[in-house]
Amino acid sequence: MRKSIVFAWTRFKNSYNRAINVVLQGTHNHYRCYLPEEIGKSSSNLLKLFYSGIELNPDETAKLRKLPKDSIVVYATKHKSYFEYLFYYTRYRLAGLKFPEIGLDYPILIWQPLGRVFRILVAHLDYLLRNLSLQDPYESGFIRQELANGRTAMVSLIEKKGFYRRFVKDKADPLRYLIELQRSTDRPVVIVPQLMFFGKKPAHSVPSMTEIMFGSELKPGNIRRLATLFRAPENIFVEVSPFMNIRDFLAQPENQDLSAEYLSVVLRRQLLRQINRHRQSIVGPVLKSREELKENILTHTSLQKFMNQYAEKKGVPIHRVHKKANAYLEEIAAKYNIGIISVLSSVVRWFLNTMFDGVTIDQKGLSRVKEAAQKGPLILIPCHKSHIDYLILSYVLFHNNMPCPLIAAGKNLSFWPMGPLFRGAGAFFIRRTFKGAALYSKIFSTYIYKLLEEGFNIEFFIEGGRSRTGKLILPKLGLLSIIIDAFQNGAANDLMFAPIFIGYDRVIEESAYLHELEGGQKKPESIGQVLKARKFLSKRHGKIYINFHEPVSFKDLLEQNRIDLDQLSKVESRVLIRNLGYRIINAINRVSVVTPHSVVAGAILNCRKNRFSLDHLMEQIDTFMTYLSARNAQISDSLVMDVDRSVEQVMDNFIQSKFIEKISLGKEAIDEDPMFSINENKRPNLEYYKNNSIAFFIPAAFTALAILKKDAFQFTATSLKEEYEFLQDLFKNEFAYDIDRSSEYYIRKNIKAFTDDAILSPHQSLPDAFNVTSAGFRKLNLFAGFLRPYLESYWVALNYFKQTPKSSIELKDRLKKIETLGSRMYKREEIERKEAMSKVNYKNAANYFMSRGVIGAEDEERIDHYTDELQGYLELIPS
Predict the structure, then answer these.
(1) Please, what is the end-to-end C-alpha distance for the chain in angstroms?
(2) Res 329 pLDDT > 60
(3) Number of domains observed in the structure of the chain
């Protein structure tokens, strides 16, 4: 009997094992954490339809295509979400990207093919019967094997009861598992953080009732997630954060010889920090209430100490100081409001479509800025040519998934009703001077400190105000100093400086700038000016160009130059900040776009006479274009694609604006080369557009004038250094010198460009000698001509000092007298360029001469020296 029972049981067990083996296809490795590529047509189509409204950004998917081919890829999200897991599985698979088939701690049953569902149930039940425990994909080696076979996984860093499971129940930790996997394989294990956004609104420190019930955009509940998907899928987007290579992570000195358990904690912390910073770079920091922010600022330890000392020094009750401090903060602070930003975004879009022919954006540069924002607060520093600058930059950032920065605006813009709108869009207001306002200065500095500490991006114009001349103004260092001081005091771990070029074919403030340059008073901003601006809506102003320089890490800059901020003296700190300011100006110049208007204006103004032919003009433009190509200047697409067509359009535009006039040659001369004349009164307008790209030509102008000064057809490159540096010093108030490159560098670069264009030819036997070609002499004059208006302006200023005894006359009155003298000299034809009658040029010239000891007629020796130099230069350059 016993034998028959054993025999029967053995037969049953063998039959059972054969059946199980057939059903399970020879393996127990059937787990819910694996979702195969083929899940059935119905399921695939349903998931495809479900997620069809969400667009994948090509720039983000391009990052995934750059993953190392031999790597083991694991996607990582902050919170556990089946919505996200199925999205990446579905959309990445359809896009031909690596998609997560393995969900680490993501058990899925409903989307499995029916055959797999049956096998999973059978495998788990059979394993339970045999071992009285549930099978584990980690312990069985299934996950290791599948990852080794090239499958992609997904892991979440935070999940409900995740900490309890790992540290109390001692369940498998996916990150520890990946670390152990990396230690046992030569292939890199790469973690790719993924961020899904359901909107761009920043989080608030005090959640609304809607957020309490349905979750926030940062962490939506199921109802809010589905509502967004069906009602506004365009609000959902995905960002890919920089990869984390676990092999590199383990190779770091501080991580060697540590346990996998401890390293998993460190790795999780680093990934969370990276994801949080990336998310903040998209939506901005958590917005605290105005009252909370105000309290944090006004109760700051250093400010409290200062106010107590201030009250004691001034002999006033402390409550009055507090009241004054509160009023100053109200005057300064922004009232960031995403609702106002959304409304203004629509207004700016309409404005751009009405007045301009499009916006050309440097997308690669913008991507670099977005990446830099993940390392620390951005300090966005655009050039300042128009009131449109801060509107267009915020608009571009907002529509490229970046938060609008907080913008330093002049107090003159706080007028009603624009002031409240600007505050809502992120503007905070700053006085033009802090002189005699110690408490205001301290409040403002503390406000900047708090903005950086909270993680806000800050935008300010280092030129201080809009350029009235078309070229960049030398840096104003006050706000830059305050930002550096906040960094030194620990407001942020790093600052990412992002120089930005914003340029226009034509600026809407053109006539106002001309009025001011000719000595007119600047009209204060008001609602009346806003209403009058309606007349510009009927005009087209060409294109807008936005280019981004490679962001500069201030922390890296200090490390590269071995600078310890805490050890610097006041003088050394000023030098550091000045050099940083000049670096920023030069960086903006380097990414400036050369527009058709600037090239044509430069060629017109450098014509020897007020009459010129189209052929002659095109020859000069061709010379400029050749030089710009040698300088690797960024040239507008229209100029690159069709120079003739671009010039024709600009000439038509200049004729309509009455900058130039076409000369009628009669019916008999219809086939002859068209002739034009310059409207003398409009030369300053043309000068403005010429100056838009003058920074590219100044090194060539200095080099050309230094060669012409030799008064010989043969010279050596080294012999130009003294003359070049004199010109660089003479115009140091006009053009920012490059502190990172020597004069020899620019001389050599320009000689190379001149040689390539047959302006110069190398001497046959002398290695450092060059000859000026017959055609080259005319072209050298053409480049040197960029300096003639400035030389004439300085000549006017020098004549003022030559005729005026030393006195204590104020700069404002001195400038008026120089302007009057300039008008007389122009009428007497002692200067020939109307554009030389520039208030800005006069001020820069007066400041330069006074800094060199020329104060009045008594300084004869210095005056005679500069007289000889200026007259010599003016004689070399044809008028």
Answers:
(1) 127
(2) yes
(3) 4
